[in-house]
Amino acid sequence: MSDNDNGGKIFLHSVTLDLDKCKGCINCIKRCPTEAIRVRDGKASIISELCIDCGQCIRVCQNKAKKANYDDLSVLDNFEYTVALPPPSLYAQFNNIDDQKIVLDALKAVGFDDVFEVAAAAEIITAATERYLTRNKGRLKYPVISTACPVVTRLISVRYPDLLDNLLPLITPVELAGKMAKKRASEKTGLSPDKIGCIFLTPCPAKVSAIHSPIGTEHKYVDAAIAINEVYPLLLKEMKKLGAELPDQQPLAGAVGLGWGIIGGESTSLKSTDKHLAADGIDNVIMVLEDLENHRYGLEFVELNACSGGCVGGVLQVENPYIARAKVNKMKSNIKVNDEPLDDDYVKLMWDKELDYNPAMELGDTMEESFERFTRLQSLIESLPGLDCGSCGAPTCAAFAEDVVKGNAEVMDCVVLLRRKTEEIYKRMESSFDSVGFSNRTED
Question: Which segments of 273-318 are extended strands (E)?
Fold first, then answer.
């Protein structure tokens, strides 16, 4: 895990870079939504303060130099009792299953002592969201924005400070699942919580980062994360062995919880409002957030997911996200809605720590320095070609100008300006030579 010390607050990142594999191409810098990557001296680097662990660079890196750090199954050996926390998107990675039972049994077959579905916790969060919207109706800053996707929450905290008060102040389903799983396992086994390992099966790197640096809470209930694409072949093998045997692990989650694995699943489950919006894909998310800063559109609830299709589109998944989405919808049609989801204390689901604005775009340490650098920045941008070619190692001319005023790049790193400067020098030299030649001919 890479880390970022932002004002004394450590934020751990899952997305990392393997310099040995990096070839210095610029595919990643052009696709990073927060302009967090630079290429200097033939190698890429990630600006930790800007990285939101969305995994876009992992998707586009043809050299596999970008990767997500996560745990492997050996982490189970660190605990006396382990509980798997499968997300609703996990079930959609497999073919020809009508419900989650066989997947839950396979998790126990690969080494977990117990299973607690994140989808069951998601149903509690749905009920808590209903209560939050209803009890505070008319007093909230609308639209309320879901905090289920850590990429979106992190993005708002570094780029959209005006929307911080719009965030839904409830812990994520993953953290709630870990909290409830530890409590149940402790009551069942008599073990202390520190000897019980809650292991999340993650669809994306952002959720790995979120379990190490929880959002909105000081408490950590999830101990590790294993990528779905790592455990998938092991589960598939065990599922084939189980065959027609009757699974003994009974699901806790119903159709509402399973729906959280796809875009729209959270917002459409709300009965208290029909004034909601759901958007997926990081580019679409940014477009919506920028519009929400200026307009409210009469919406009461907004669900945003950085991955296309929702969590089924995570970079650590196996199945095509659109096929996976169809699988989730099919499973939902076979499963009843829980009229009364597992209950938990509503007050204890609220954040116990405010999410601060962590400006990653500041140009200086003081207002005076920022103002002076901003003036230089505007002047430099006007002198740049505006091609956004990426040859300087920055994604745009504006990003390059910011690097220069921060002292992280030189003006002549711009190949266009360097060429112009070279041409000017050549012309002066040529003019000088012509002058000397003319003078010599005159003397002759």
Answer: 276-280, 301-305
Secondary structure element (H or E) that encloses residue 180, with its range: helix 173-189
Burial readout 215-252 (b: 16 or more C-beta within 10 A, e: otherwise): bbbeeebbbbbbbbbebbeebeebbeeeeeeebebebb
**Distant-in-sequence, close-in-space partners of 325: CB < 8 Å, separation ≥ 6:** 92, 262, 263, 309, 310, 312
Kindly report, residue by residue over 258-275, the tens digit of the pLDDT. Answer: 999 999 999 999 998 999
3-class DSSP state of 247: coil
Which domains does the chain carry? 2-67 (3.30.70.20), 73-349 (no CATH), 367-428 (1.10.15.40)
Contacts of 196 (CB under 8 A, 6+ apart): 79, 80, 81, 82, 83, 181, 182, 185, 186, 189
Give CA–CA dist 123/258, Å, rounded: 9
35, 38, 49, 34: which is closest to 4 by C-alpha?
49
**How is residue 174 written in tokens?**
């993953």
Supply φ then ψ for residue 14, to 5 degrees.
Answer: -90, -35
Instruction: Of 349, 356, 398, give the one whose Cα is nearest residue 377.
Output: 398
Tell me the three state secondary structure of residue 311: helix
CA distance 266 to 107: 25
Q: Distance between CA atoms of 373 and 265, rounded to whole angstroms?
A: 45
User: Tokens in use for 319?
Assistant: 């199945």
User: pTM (2 decimals)?
Assistant: 0.88
Each residue's pLDDT tens digit, 382-419: 999 999 999 999 999 999 999 999 899 999 999 999 88
- Answer for the pair 192, 167: CB distance below 8 angstroms, yes or no: no
The beta strands (E) that lie in 228-293 are given as: 276-280
Query: Distance between CA atoms of 368 and 358, rounded to whole angstroms?
Result: 19
Q: Tokens 């296309």 appear where?
A: 308
Partners of 279 in beta bridges = 304
- CA-nearest of 256, 181, 164, 262 to 215 is 164
Q: Where are the beta strands (DSSP E) in 210-269?
A: 224-227
Q: Distance between CA 75 and CA 176 in Å, rounded? A: 21
Cβ atoms of 45 and 53 within 8 Å: the answer is no
